[in-house]
Amino acid sequence: xxxxxxxxxxxxxxxxxxxxxxxxxxxxxxxxxxxxxxxxxxxxxxxxxxxxxxxxxxxxxxxxxxxxxxxxxxxxxxxxxxxxxxxxxxxxxxxxxxxxxxxxxxxxxxxxxxxxxxxxxxxxxxxxx
Length: 129
Description:
The protein is mostly helical. The chain has helices spanning 15-33, 38-47, 52-125. 80% of the residues lie in helices and 0% in strands.
């Protein structure tokens, strides 16, 4: 069973362009002939079989992981700072309210004393119905 040859009419191109097209056709032919091992063989050809592609990928993944970790730390720090700010603000407001309540309590006690003094004075003056 013979495969038909792939013929492509190439316009007048430079020699490098022809080589690129021939390499692409060879890679395509390898994909059609042996699809199971095609990716491995293409990777070996592209990297020279030394695994440079995998090393670059690992380095890129580590860099991405490191950047993600740093961003997570920065966001966490910002959230913690915001929570601390809210706690401090709430404590200040509570202190203000507490001091107002104490001053109002003193005012109420003074009013009670004045009321008692007025009642005693009225009772002593002998106003009778």
